[in-house]
Amino acid sequence: MAASLRLFTVLGPAQKFQFRIFTKLVRPLSSGSNQYDYDLIVIGGGSGGLACSKEAAQLGRRVAVLDYVDPSPQGTVWGLGGTCVNVGCIPKKLMHHASLLGEAVKGAAKYGWDVPQETKHSWEVLVGGVQNHLRSLNWGHRVALKDKSVDYLNAYGTFVDAHTIKATTRSGKETILTADRFVIATGMRPKYPQMEGAREYAHSSDDLFSLQKPPGKTLVVGASYVALECAGFLTGLGYDVTVMMRSIPLRGFDQQMAELVIDNMVSHGTRVLRGCVPQQILKQASGELAVTWQRQTGGPGSAVDADDSDEFSTVLLAIGREPCTKSLNLDVAGVKMNESTGFIVGSEEESERTSVPNIYAIGDVLQDRPELTPVAIKAGKLLARRLYDGATEHMDYVNVPTTVFTPLEYGCVGLSEENAVQLHGEDNVEVYHAFYKPLEYIIPERNHQQCYIKMVCSRQDEKILGLHFLGPHAGEVIQGFGFAVKCGATRGQLTSVVGIHPTCAEEVIKMHVTKRSGEDATVTGC
Amino acid sequence: MAPKLVHVDGFDAVVKALDEHKGSSVVFVLFCGSRTARGVSWCPDCVTAEPIIHESFKKCPDDHVLIHCTVGERNFWKDKACIFRTDARFKLNAVPTLMRWGKPQRLEETQCTDPGLVDMLFEDE
Ligand SMILES: Cc1cc2nc3c(=O)[nH]c(=O)nc-3n(C[C@H](O)[C@H](O)[C@H](O)COP(=O)(O)OP(=O)(O)OC[C@H]3O[C@@H](n4cnc5c(N)ncnc54)[C@H](O)[C@@H]3O)c2cc1C
């Protein structure tokens, strides 16, 4: 292997073809699929695609990965690594952290630090630091692919048939490539509403993290976690932010927790408009964006009682995301997708197999699977091991922990209270809960009203069905408890653990008040 | 015309060369161990990497500059307090290191002896 890699590296791109022949000779593992250019072509170089392609290459396979970023309507593009690295988890968490630092500085005076009353934040410095880090990650991914001998093509992939793909570069150059197997890992992109001015003037999360100018007064449209996270950190950075939502926040999450997240955001300074649907965005001579919306105070679907409008410097659309499957020409390959949503439906026996036996899908494009980076990565690695290493382990999509990085973080694992009740019946579900006060909030008199935990248990055997934590560092807290839930832990087992004092996480272990009892859930004393 | 290869020796010289090429062009810097009395670098990876890097650089556009900097003799470099290691602009961990100046692209040690990676560094924007 090492010798063949070395040889490849001394050949220029022009000799690629000879290299192929050479690898065919030295890689006996690949036999049986020599009629194709590659054993595996992965379409999409994001979280899932990179993990899968590297794993397959390490198992001795000839692998290529295609990654191509369609410019956003505002013209934003980025490098290798997909959503998480460029326009998702990473820049989002860094900006969230920037916002938390501002909060910490505000409270620091009460802890004795001599900080100026008015602190200023530079958007340009933040974006510069964030983008610089992202560029180094892009480079790291390119180096990693080369190191592992995965061929990387910065080209858009479309199927020609079940074993053939057309790769088109930005300049329009087309290459036809064949492979024994394909993995579709093309992810999702933000949805745009049919609204005047949306594509022309609005931004999405694809643009926000590289925005050259400070966003100024911002309207965030949507109630997805992306909408709330962006609104939260923009407020924390000092901008005037309004969130406009049509119906419920954080659909799919526990709704009591979601409402507490919103309450906290409001007390943190974000304006929240509910039951509102934007109608139009117009650009004023001043450069500001005039937004008109309809208000339905009777809830979604009710009669419109008023039209309202206001001016904003930035409109951020975060109404949802849609899978990038429509222009893959899936039909010519025979791959079925859900026609209305565009998601690829995995087969019964193997979640990642499509309707065509040699074509697989991982990550965000799969229907009814958590849209999270670690999920895409794990599914990609496991798939490669099953395909090329005789492994049998399948991806387990149940009890995947996650965290919403709003100013007060919300982490959870397992079922929401409403889902547990729906599945098991109200009588069979016991919910423990607690309102607690983080120690470090007391001296600076920070708002702790929404610091809340609840544990949803089966009433018979006390098995933990779901755990929900709203508070500082929720992501760090829930990761460990996620392990317990994954192992099928009961409340009894959890309470047998000794807490770490003084922390917020210990409140999870100490919880003893049930909702059913109606007792006050406020934690008191030490 | 061809892309410009500049040889400098030591910290002050590389800072000066970087200053001279500020702004106008795409600048790469290669840090290698200095030559010993035997005429070759004391660092074996540098010996392997140098011709590969010089060869690959020839394919670059004319306005590109490669500053080839020798960092000094072995004992000077091995010192944890060596200025090439501590200076915030360079923060070197290893020789050879090839970097695109002002950008995050960087290759270290045996990565610099891989023509594929070296080509990629010169091409990547
Ligand atoms: C704002 C935001 C914040 C997020 N925060 C988190 C978080 O905190 N934690 C978390 O776990 N997840 C988070 N996510 C979700 C996470 O980013 C995704 O779940 C993850 O990136 C999915 O990986 P993937 O491999 O399915 O697709 P992606 O990472 O989206 O990669 C797909 C790649 O394929 C490319 N592509 C598409 N079509 C083609 C084609 N035809 N040919 C070639 N290339 C193509 C795309 O350009 C892209 O580069 C966030 C997402 C967003 C938008």
Automatic annotation (TrEMBL), chain A:
Annotated ranges, domain Pyridine nucleotide-disulphide oxidoreductase dimerisation: 400-510
Cross-referenced Gene3D superfamilies: 3.30.390.30, FAD/NAD(P)-binding domain (3.50.50.60)
Ranges that cross the membrane: none
SUPFAM superfamilies xrefs: FAD/NAD(P)-binding domain, FAD/NAD-linked reductases, dimerisation (C-terminal) domain
UniProt keyword Flavoprotein, yes or no: yes
One Pfam family hit: Pyr_redox_2
All residue ranges annotated as the FAD/NAD(P)-binding domain in the record: 38-380
Keywords: Disulfide bond, FAD, Flavoprotein, NADP, Oxidoreductase, Redox-active center
PANTHER family for this protein: GLUTATHIONE REDUCTASE, THIOREDOXIN-DISULFIDE REDUCTASE
Family statement drawn from the similarity comment of this UniProt entry: Belongs to the class-I pyridine nucleotide-disulfide oxidoreductase family.
Protein name: Thioredoxin reductase 2, mitochondrial-like isoform X1
Classification of source organism: Eukaryota, Metazoa, Ecdysozoa, Scalidophora, Priapulida
UniProtKB/TrEMBL annotation, chain B:
InterPro entries: Thioredoxin-like_sf, TXNDC17-like, TXNDC17_dom
SUPFAM superfamilies, per the entry: Thioredoxin-like
Domain Thioredoxin: 8-124
Sequence intervals crossing the membrane: none
PANTHER family: 42-9-9 PROTEIN-RELATED, THIOREDOXIN DOMAIN-CONTAINING PROTEIN 17
Family as reported in the entry's similarity comment: Belongs to the thioredoxin family.
Protein name from the UniProt record: Thioredoxin domain-containing protein 17
Species this chain originates from: Priapulus caudatus
Name of the gene: LOC106819054
